[in-house]
Every structure is written in structure tokens, then in C-alpha cells.
Amino acid sequence: MNWGHEIAWFFGGAFLTNALPHWLAGLMGRPFQSPFAKPPGQGLSSSAVNVLWGFANFAAAYFLLLHVGHFDLYAGSDIAAPALGGLLMALHAARHFGQFHGGNEPLGKSPS
Fold first, then answer.
1. pLDDT of residue 97
2. Which of 62, 34, 28 is nearest to 50 (CA)?
3. Which of 8, 25, 43, 88 could be disulfide-bonded to 68 (CB atoms 3.0-4.6 Å)?
4. How many Å from the N-terminal Cα to the C-terminal Cα in the chain?
């Protein structure tokens, strides 16, 4: 086990997960929060900016997952790091973006 590879793959999973909401919001023509908005991460960026930001995140994920070490998609030991990175990024995004879109209800509780 090479810890450097595991760390790169962890962040590859995080970048892959982060790419999805930006890419999809942009494809749907909807503004969405991005680091380029004012204030960063809170204001809305255009759909074009989100497509570009999503693409940049896909590119970073591609590099970290497929060009660092020998990543085997079928090896459970290799998939664990990006899966954990993706899960933690998804939970962070749900919490962060939920404050703007009404999705910050505790687990098991539905909005009244």
C-alpha cells in the first residue's frame, strides 16, 4: 500500500463527486454556487461557469485516479479511498448547499 497513491485517490473521489452538481446545474442552464461567485461558495455563478468548473473537477479526478499509481477499479482496496473521498465530499456538499436550497434537515426528519 502506497499512502501517496491512497491520498491522491481519496482526493480524486472528492473531485469526481464535486464535479457532478456543477456540471449538471450547468447542463440544465441553472445558476449554482461556485468558488467564483460573490461571495465565493455562496453566491450564484452562471451555468457556463459551472460547466467549466465541473469540467475542471472531472479533469482533476481523471488525473488523480488514473495517472497516480496503478488504480484498479475492480480492486476493493483501490476503490475504498476514492469512495471515502466521494462520500465525505457528498456529505459536505449536502450540508453546505442545503443551507441555500432547503436541504439541511437532520437525518430521518422531513420538512414540515
1. 84
2. 34
3. 8
4. 48
